[in-house]
Specification:
This protein is about 45% helix and about 10% strand. It is α+β, with helices and mostly antiparallel strands and about 400 residues long.
């Protein structure tokens, strides 16, 4: 049986050694290393019975180092220095291949870590200042607050994984201040109904139905590309959104579930049903319910690159300066104007939580002050109805 070494910790003076004189008294004399290298060496033994040493020029530094590690061993927050010495980039290189990510998520995360200026810093040496400097650089470069927040969120996911695997004690990015999000009606592009009408009119005959799905069902670009004829329930007057078509490389499309698990059933207005029915009759006749509504390259579906070209041509012919994603905002704003509540809009848009809907479209709902004032006015009228009816009036308080 291997004998377990007793835990010991302390600081050793490497420039001197202890001897006993003729009378048996201890005294310190210069050692063979006197004046060579760093004088003070800290020493401790971890829970795995491994001894760790490090040399310092000053005794106080050696004591501090020993005290920090022995305290961490006592509190259960100890990290082996050999593990904390691994860099951010090296840990990510080991961790990322084990993650169940789709292609574009892996590519995006790789770009974030590769662009982190302190990726070569050891995890144990990473400080909040490294992250703060990165945030400042991105802000000075003009990146949108949402982009900066997304990148920092990716880094935090990596650091949390390092904590879980015992490479790091705490997340140094916590409490780092990020740029505030500013959302207002002026910043969100919402086309007018007449502009949407002109887009439908000037889009290619086999592309007009695609524009209509984005404007009147709120589909995302990749979701509309992946719609199959069988997804449309003409009797039930609904559309099932069950997949998206993501372009991996030229003419290579990956069909997968919608983002954030946003499968949903969208109620479809009669006008859109009629337009979709005519599109199928003219451009997609057949018996196979799995045939794509909009054929194109890769997996037989329209690619997102083809969509850009077709939509750009439609908006130039229509004289409309708007983006495709603005049609999704057009749909959401119409639901809100019609009095739909947050949860209804969330489900129609395929957001994973009502908070996302509120963060995006809160400015489109009626002003809170107007609602409060109206509610208070109604309560006031009910409470004072008897006095007003008898003519007694309200006594001043």
């Amino acid at each position: 049986m291997t004998q377990r070494r007793n835990r010991r910790a302390g600081v050793e003076d490497r420039w001197t050694r202890t001897i006993r004189d003729a009378d048996g008294n201890e005294q310190r004399v210069p050692s063979a290393r006197n004046g060579k290298g760093l004088r003070w060496m800290g020493r401790y033994v971890d829970d795995q019975n491994r001894e760790h040493t490090k040399s310092f020029a000053r005794k106080v530094e050696a004591k501090t180092w020993v005290n920090e590690h022995t305290a961490a061993l006592t509190t259960g927050t100890y990290v082996d220095p050999s593990r904390s010495a691994i860099t951010v980039a090296s840990f990510y290189g080991q961790w990322a291949p084990r993650q169940v990510w789709v292609h574009h998520t892996r590519r995006s995360n790789d770009a974030v870590v590769d662009g982190f200026p302190s990726k070569g810093v050891a995890l144990g040496e990473l400080r909040a200042s490294h992250v703060e400097t990165w945030v400042k650089v991105m802000s000075d470069d003009g990146l949108e607050p949402t982009t900066i927040r997304q990148r920092v969120s990716t880094l935090r996911a990596v650091l949390k994984a390092a904590i879980r695997d015992g490479y790091l004690v705490r997340d140094p990015s916590q409490n780092v201040r990020l740029p505030r999000l500013r959302r207002n009606e002026a910043a969100m592009e919402i086309p007018e109904p007449a502009e949407v009408g002109r887009l439908l009119e000037h889009a290619d005959a086999d592309f007009s139905a695609y524009v209509a799905l984005c404007a009147f069902a709120g589909l995302r670009r990749a979701e509309a590309c992946a719609v199959q004829v069988g997804d449309i329930d003409f009797l039930g007057r609904v559309l099932r959104v069950e997949r998206q078509a993501v372009l991996i490389a030229r003419n290579n499309i990956d069909v997968r579930a919608p983002k954030y698990g946003s499968e949903r059933v969208v109620p479809v207005p009669d006008g859109l049903l009629a337009l979709l029915g005519e599109h199928i009759r003219m451009h997609r006749p057949g018996d196979d319910p799995a045939r794509p509504m909009f054929p194109g390259v890769g997996a037989g579906m329209l690619s997102t690159n083809q969509v850009w070209r077709l939509f750009d041509r439609a908006r130039r012919l229509a004289g409309v300066d708007t983006h495709l994603h603005a049609l999704r905002h057009f749909y959401a704003s119409g639901l809100i104007r019609a009095g739909c509540d947050v949860v209804t809009v969330q489900r129609a848009m395929g957001h994973s939580a009502p908070s996302i809907t509120l963060n995006t479209y809160s400015h489109l709902w009626p002003d809170a002050e107007d609602r409060t004032r109206g509610a208070a006015s109604e309560m006031f009228a009910q409470a004072t109805a008897d006095q007003l009816r008898t003519g007694d009036g309200i006594r001043s308080l």
